[in-house]
Amino acid sequence: MNPVNHTQVTGFVLLGLSQAWELRIFFFMVFLTVYFCTVMGNLLIVAIVSSDPHLHTTMYFLLANLSFLDFCYSSITSPRMLADLLSGNPTISFGGCLTQLFFFHFIGGIKIFLLTVMAYDRYVAISQPLRYPLIMNQGVCGLFMAGSWVGGFIHSIVQVALTVQLPFCGPNKLDNFYCDVPQLIKLACTDTFALELLMVSNNGLVTLMCFLVLLGSYTALLIMLRSHSREGRSKALSTCASHIAVVTLIFVPCIYIYARPFRTFPMDKAVSVLYTMVTPMLNPAIYTLRNKEVIDAMKKLWRKYIVTRGKQEH
């Protein structure tokens, strides 16, 4: 590769969701609302779990971490996308593009590993309820979280290391609203067939295998629940249904984007919007609407806020 080629493209033009000004204004209003709901919903769950001693358990610790990651994940792409919708010529520097790519895959990788940990947590809780506090203690939970962060970092740094070596000499138009591997690779001034296969293996096949393992584990859990009491089965089913819904919303779009050759398809941008903006907004609703303990804790937090505000006013 010619090193000179690396300096020929200093930035990229993000084509975004639309070039029409009216549509961009409409998208801005819609996604500003979506991002606001995402931030408020996920940070509210973090606050609820942190403030209520009854929720200081492994399951809710993992749920609060997932909510924090959803907040971070959405914030990597949404603020810039909102600004670019109002900009006449949205561009991003080469360094800024790689930085966004790094954090996008870093947080995304942590989420995938965390969902696997959450599936294991539910498996232990249902299959071995008496030994559950011993198996999933604070130390083990902390190790799982540390492993998720390390795994996410390794996954992400591989993406950046492989991408930064590519020569980019034009064109410099990225057909998306954020920087990601599939769009960047298509702009490289070299044959990227072998690299695409490596990226598909690293991203798509690993994601697909994790998804199948998770589905298998939840299927085993559902079969195991048949021997439980009606009340216990109902509560466990509600929790598992929430987990399965979140896993499906996160993994299916990722499999669609990464587990295939990096070619452009009509649904690509819609799917990208789904898993970068819509899914992080839906996750809090999926968990809170189906969880009585979280709803009760939310009411307690709200009453505490009202009482505190009343005292301040008097």
UniProtKB/TrEMBL annotation:
**Membrane topology type, per the record?**
Multi-pass membrane protein
Cited CDD domains: 7tmA_OR4D-like (cd15936)
Q: Sorted alphabetically, which Pfam families does this protein's record hold?
A: 7tm_4
Its cellular-component GO annotations read:
plasma membrane
Could you tell me which residue ranges the G-protein coupled receptors family 1 profile domain spans? 41-287
Alphabetical list of SUPFAM superfamilies matching this protein: Family A G protein-coupled receptor-like
Q: From the record, give the transmembrane residue ranges.
A: 25-48, 60-82, 102-120, 140-162, 205-225, 237-258
Arranged from A to Z, the UniProt key words for this protein are: G-protein coupled receptor, Membrane, Olfaction, Receptor, Sensory transduction, Transducer, Transmembrane, Transmembrane helix
Q: What is its main location?
A: membrane
Q: Name one GO molecular function term.
A: G protein-coupled receptor activity
**InterPro entries assigned:** GPCR_Rhodpsn, GPCR_Rhodpsn_7TM, Olfact_rcpt, Olfactory_Receptors
Q: Which domain of life is it from?
A: Eukaryota
Places the protein is found: Membrane
What protein does this entry describe? Olfactory receptor family 4 subfamily D member 5
